[in-house]
Structures are given as structure tokens and as C-alpha cells.
Amino acid sequence: MTFDPTVVSYHDLLTVFMTTHDPTSLNRQGNDVGTQYRSVIFCHSPAQRATAEQVIGELEAAQVWKRKIVTELVPFTEFYPAEEYHRDYFRRNPGAGYCRAIIEPKVSKFRKQFAARLKRN
Fold first, then answer.
1. From start to end of 2-120, where are the E strands?
2. Pairing status of strand 72-75 against strand 40-43
3. What are the tens digits of pLDDT across the range 35-59?
4. Distance separating alpha carbons of residues 37 and 34, to the nearest angstrom
5. Can you list the domains of the chain with their CATH numbers?
6. Averaged over 82-105, what is the pLDDT?
């Protein structure tokens, strides 16, 4: 996936990110536990960090989550591509238990919450 700011703003991208997973759980997403499951935004610039802080502030003010958002804001340093078997995992494995129990509900929530923004082919 490539971020294109001419298609979607960074603010909107972060809003989708922050509302389709639980940004209030430290080092955890559902039953998955460990720092690799933390909620984190890797900022490429001070402007991106400021936007992330703004989005977090907006979501906390709107009380979207009952608990405090603990998403880390970290300077970007290096990108590590996923192993081939992790790429497009949901699309290639829709019947897998993890996909049905974890990913599908998040995708459904996204489709419902952001239906007006979805591109129709």
C-alpha cells in the first residue's frame, strides 16, 4: 500500500487508522501481546507528528475511546518489508481463522464507518 496525499489527507489516513484498531491497549491488539502489536505511528516529519497529535487530541476530545490513547509517535528511521507470506494475507486467506475472527470485523467496521470514502470500481 502506498500513501498518496493527493488521494487522501494524512489527517484522514490517521483517523481511519486510529478508529479501526484499539489505540488504547499498550503492546496489545486483541489476544496478540508484545511490543510488535503496539499502536505506533512512524512520523516522517515534524508536520506529520503535529498532525498525529492533532488527530489523537480530536479523538480524545470526542471520547471515541473510553480509555486514553497510548499510540506511540516515533520518528521514522527504516522500513522493513513484510515477508512474502504476510503480504495480502487477508485477500489470499479469507477463510483462515485469524482472518475471520480478527481482520474481517475490522474491515467490516471500516467499510461501514467510511463507506462514503470507498472507491467504487
1. 28-29, 32-33, 40-43, 72-75
2. parallel
3. 888 999 999 999 999 999 999 999 9
4. 6
5. 10-79 (3.30.1060.10)
6. 90
